[in-house]
């Protein structure tokens, strides 16, 4: 998936989609989805709020110079202001 630039996840288990930083290390995020530029997530998974792993992923991508230009979050209720602020710092544009 090295040339994937756009990813749309629908009701995905985000904890399963985005690796924990302790599993593979920070340097691997240069290699993980290296061309990803736009990310769209629609609807929460049935298991509830799982934005923590996603936020960590976005922050790590930014730290290694692979900032996501556009992140769209649709149909995801009850996102705390602190989490919104964290996402806004980690991506170019955040739309809800």
Task: Detail the topology: elements first, then pairings.
Layout: E1 6-10, H1 14-17, H2 21-24, E2 38-42, H3 51-63, E3 68-74, H4 81-90, E4 91-95
Parallel strand pairs: 1-2, 2-3, 3-4
Helix pairs in contact: 3-4
Query: How helical, in percent, are the residues?
Result: 25-40%
> What is the molecular shape?
globular
Strand content: 15-25%
For the report, how would you describe the main beta sheet?
4 strands, parallel
Which parts are unreliable, with pLDDT below 50 for 5 consecutive residues or more? none
Helix and strand run: EHHEHEHE
The total of beta strands comes to: 4
Distance between the termini: 26 Å
Structural class: alpha/beta
Q: How many domains?
A: 1
Strand order of the largest sheet: 1-2-3-4
Radius of gyration: 12 Å
Mean pLDDT, to the nearest integer, reads 81
Number of helices: 4
How would you describe this structure to a colleague?
By secondary structure, the chain is of the alpha/beta class. The N and C termini lie far apart (26 Å). Helix 3 packs parallel to helix 4. 32% of the residues lie in helices and 23% in strands. 15% of the residues are buried. Strands 1-2-3-4 form a four-stranded parallel sheet. The chain has one domain. The mean pLDDT is 81. It is built from four helices and four strands; from the N terminus they run βααβαβαβ. The chain is globular and about 30 Å long.
């Amino acid at each position: 998936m090295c040339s994937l630039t756009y990813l749309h996840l629908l009701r995905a288990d985000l904890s399963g989609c985005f690796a924990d930083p302790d599993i593979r290390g920070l340097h691997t995020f240069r290699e993980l989805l290296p061309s990803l530029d736009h990310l769209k997530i629609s609807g929460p998974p049935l298991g509830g709020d799982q934005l923590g792993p996603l936020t960590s992923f976005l922050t790590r991508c930014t730290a290694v110079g692979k900032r996501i230009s556009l992140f769209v979050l649709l149909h995801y209720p009850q996102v705390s202001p602190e989490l919104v602020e964290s996402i806004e710092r980690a991506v170019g544009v955040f739309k809800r």
